[in-house]
Amino acid sequence: MTPGADSSPEPAGPTADVGRLVDHLFRREAGRLVAILARRLGPGSLHLAEDAVQDALARAMETWPFNGIPENPTAWLLQTARNRAFDLLRRDRTSRTKQDQVALMLEGSGDDMSPVPSAQFEDEVVDAQLRMMFVCCHPVLPPEAQIALILKTLSGFSEREIAVALLTTEPAIAKRLVRARATLREAAMDFELPPAPELASRVTSVLHALYLLFNEGYKASHGDTLLREDLCAEAIRLGELLVRQPLGDRPDAHALLALLHFHAARLPTRVADDGSLLVLADQDRSAWDRREISRGVIHLGRAAEGRQLTRWHLEAAIAACHVLPERYADTDWPGILESYDALLELDRSPVIALNRAIAFAHVHGPAAALDQLEVMADDRVLREYHLFHAARGTLLAELGRTDEAAAAFQRAMGYAPQAVERDHLAARLAALTQHR
Amino acid sequence: MTQNTSKPVYLFLLRDSANLPDPSPEEMQQATQKWMAWIDRMKSRGQYLGGDRLEEQPARIVRGPRGQPNSDGPFIETKEIVGGYMLITADTFEQAVDIAKDCPGFEKGWTVEVRQLYPRSPGRP
Fold first, then answer.
1. B7, B28, B99: best mutation site toward chain A, by most A Cβ within 10 Å?
2. Which of the 8 DSSP states describes residue B125?
3. How many angstroms separate the CA atoms of A159 and A163, rounded?
4. Can you tell me the distance from the alpha carbon of A14 to that of A8, in angstroms, rounded to the nearest whole number?
5. Residues of A in contact with B83 (CB under 8 A)
């Protein structure tokens, strides 16, 4: 036998310890434990909670391979993080809190090492995460800070991962988080739930933040696709956590979740194997995630309970019209147009008007839709919006006005922010000139 | 450490460079999984006898009973800290070295020193 012949990698047996580490366990536990510790210590100690949890995870990384995964990993991590937080506080001479007070503050259920976390502990985790969501989405914080804070404290992302996912730099994210934590400290924020009227509006701002979080992950990009899809998954996970609570069980929350699930169903099919973008008509419908679609349908049903009609209801209805038909040709364009009409009533946004015009083209033909686009051509936003020029190019091409269509696609390319989108437009431009 | 084999026993001294930025939870989980997979592989072949991580602090190098405690750790002599050890068995030293080459710490700047223990049974070199 050649030396080392049997040290080549081979799959470990089914009883192997490594199999007990479920995907994203560390990241998920990071979010849960930061929420719990911060809840016990107060939002002013957010950074301390983050450091303590980081150290606990590092310790797990160092010792679990040698000693095995503890029977109750959560309890092990919580105790380790708790001890670490206690050490850090004791070392901090500026801290005026007495040691025994700190120890008492850090006490809680789930600190015993019983193999299965108690139901009481799981309730505390959910409660802590909800309160953390409300703190992260406090109106004193700008939306981009809210998203970064959610990813750091609730989702266990590092600053580098947040920077990659949000297509910015690590120092920019670090600065954003420092400012956000300082704002929370200055505002002397606590984890008490706001009073009833404010609570409802806070739930709304959480929903907005989750919507933005999902969109960040959903944007087409050459970035780290997996990490960006994790943003979508996090938005859905936190949204599901919210709607399972009485205070979050609202029609608009269900509408948002329906929308997110419908979009998530198509996530894997938006990009071809060569990395190029695929429009809806060209996507492989058999590869759409049926489970996501059926979850979306369930939430859409719950969203219809009550008389509330929000933009998410309408957007979810549009998304449903896109994902439910078996074939692209069966798309219910009149239904989509109707939803866009209602959406435009709620929000006179030029981007919604543009999307409505595209639906309008499918119902009433390209010439009538083009007339509508020409009216919008001077709009401050649309003028420099690549999708406006791409839509114009598409309609002009359908009408056989090839030269004008080519010019429109060229303008679109000039405004497209992402290389992958420019490539897509270049391909359409090339197809246009071939048909000439 | 019991040993039910007549094969030679080797010591792995795992040294950590400890100069890396904080890894993210996801990266820490990936590292944990790689280390577990490595140890599981050794276990499944009956090569792994035991091992542990070492605390970074406290650490001191003691030089004889009257030696000056002038060094608060092994770090003055080397930038690398002994972060753990393992005892493994292998047929030959070369095989032990090959097992060490699977250590997932290399990408993070770890090194593994492979040493052979004195044999316990007489008659073997």
1. B28
2. -
3. 6
4. 18
5. 62
For residue A379, give both structure tokens.
Answer: 């709009």
Candidate from B26, B83, B92 with C-beta closest to A24:
B26
Alpha helices in A150-195 (DSSP H): 159-165, 170-186
Whether residue A4 and residue B95 make contact (CB cut-off 8 A), yes or no, is yes
Across the interface, whether the CB atoms of B31 and A61 are under 8 A apart is answered yes
For chain A, the straight-line distance linking the first and the last C-alpha, in angstroms and rounded, comes to 68
- pLDDT by residue for chain A (436 residues), tens only, comes to 344 344 444 444 444 567 778 888 999 999 999 999 998 888 778 889 999 999 999 999 999 999 999 989 999 999 999 999 988 888 776 666 666 666 666 776 666 667 777 888 888 899 999 999 999 999 999 999 999 999 999 999 999 989 888 878 999 999 999 999 999 888 877 788 888 888 899 999 999 999 999 988 887 665 667 778 889 999 999 999 999 999 999 999 999 999 999 999 998 888 777 777 788 888 889 999 999 999 999 999 999 998 889 999 999 999 999 999 999 999 999 999 999 999 999 989 898 999 999 999 999 999 999 999 999 999 988 999 999 999 999 999 999 999 999 999 999 999 987 788 888 899 999 988 776 5
Q: Does B56 touch chain A (CB under 8 A)?
A: no
Contact B44 A12 (CB under 8 A): yes
* pTM for this predicted structure: 0.83
B40 touches A: beta carbon within 8 Å: yes
Quick check: B24 and A157 CB within 8 A? yes
Token representation of residue A49: 């909670």
Q: Tell me the C-alpha distance between A373 and A21, whole Å.
A: 53
How far is CA A402 from each of CA A361, A388, A393, A415, rounded to the nearest angstrom?
Answer: 18, 17, 9, 20
Sorted by sequence, the CB contacts under 8 Å of residue A43 that are 6+ apart come out as A135, A184, A185, A189, A190, A191
Closest chain A residue by Cα to residue B86: A66
Cβ-defined contact of A60 to B36 (cutoff 8 Å):
no
C-alpha angle A184-A189-A193 in degrees, rounded to nearest 5: 130
B 58-97 near A (Cβ less than 8 A): 83-84, 91-92, 94-95, 97
**Partner-chain contact A13 B84, CB within 8 Å:** no
CB under 8 Å to A393, separation ≥6 — which residues? A405, A406, A408, A409, A412, A428, A432
Closest residue, chain A, to B23 (C-alpha):
A158
How large is the ipTM? 0.85
**Chosen from B7, B24, B98 to mutate, greatest number of chain A CBs within 10 A:** B24
